[in-house]
Amino acid sequence: MKKVTTLSLVVALALLISACNFPFADTESAMATSVAATVDAMEEEASHAVVPTLAPLPTQAPPEPVAPTQEPDRYRDNDYCDKYSESQWPEECGPYYDHQPYNKNQCLYATFLSETIKDNTEFTTGESFTKTWTLRNDGYCDWNEDYHLIFKSGTQMAGPDDYVFGIEIDPGEEITISLDLTAPASAGTYTGYWQLETDEDVKFGTALSVKIKVE
User: Fold this and answer.
1) For residue 208, which phi and psi values (nearest 5 degrees)?
2) Which residues contact 176 (CB under 8 A, 6 or more apart)?
3) Quick one: 47 and 89 in the same domain?
4) pLDDT, position 4
5) SS3 letters across 177-212
6) I want to staple 136 with a disulfide (CB 3.0 to 4.6 A). Which of 61, 111, 169, 199 is the partner?
7) Do 149 and 185 sit in the same domain of this protein?
């Protein structure tokens, strides 16, 4: 009787241990299967994922080089200076009356070449001097002997009202004009302007200026 009881206890204990072990094995197997399925699903999703394409950034054009600013020639750079009215006239253009629009294809066209007595030359009161300009006829019309230079504005400095050429200047030829002038009797800065005219009193070319300082 004692042996049967002992055997029964052993069998019962074995059954109990087996009953406890079987669920754990099934759970671990189920978990492994679930993890494997999840990994497979993630890999499948990743293989079909669309990688977004980034739009390229706009390309900026390099800045254009800035040309250096050049000081205009008061006798030649009319394209710059003639944009301004007399009240807005830039100082770097020289006297306002020194400018007049020109075109090398026109009949009357005078080119300034040189001068004596530069601007702001100093003289004593009452001192005499001679101002000379050299010009070239760059138009396609002759300047006849009755063409002349007239006083236009400013201080006349005892100069003539009218200087007649007295010779004919063909296109391409040069003429030198000299005026005998006298410095004013009072100290200061003085400017006078003379203008070219035809024999029919048609003005052309740039006004010619005399600017002096009297001490």
Assistant:
1) -100, 130
2) 132, 133, 134, 135
3) no
4) 46
5) EEEEEECCCCCEEEEEEEEEECCCCCEEEEEEEEEE
6) 111
7) yes
pLDDT at res. 91: 77
Task: Name the phi and psi angles at 141, rounded to 5.
Answer: -110, 150
Q: What percent of the chain has pLDDT over 90?
A: 47
Q: Do 153 and 193 meet the contact criterion of CB atoms below 8 Å apart?
A: yes
Instruction: Give per-residue pLDDT as tens, 117-161.
Output: 999 999 999 999 999 999 999 888 999 999 999 999 999 999 999
CA 60, 66, 69: angle at the middle one, nearest 5? 165
81 φ/ψ sector (left φ>0, alpha ψ -120 to 50, else beta): alpha
User: How many structural domains is the chain composed of?
Assistant: 2
77 burial (CB, 10 Å; 0-12 / 13-18 / 19+) is: middle
Instruction: Determine, yes or no, domain membership for 71.
Output: no
Q: Are residues 154 and 84 in the same domain?
A: yes
pTM more than 0.85? no
Residue 73 lies in a domain: no
Nearest C-alpha neighbor of 97 from the set 214, 210, 212: 210
Which residue has 């007595």 as its token pair?
Answer: 117
Q: What is the mean pLDDT of residues 50-56?
A: 59
In 3D space, the residue among 118, 192, 131 whose CA is nearest the CA of residue 161 turns out to be 192
For the segment 163-201, what is each residue's pLDDT rounded down to a tens digit? 999 999 998 899 999 999 999 999 999 999 999 999 999
Tokens of 52: 């977004």
Pairwise CA distance, residues 30 & 207, whole Å: 109
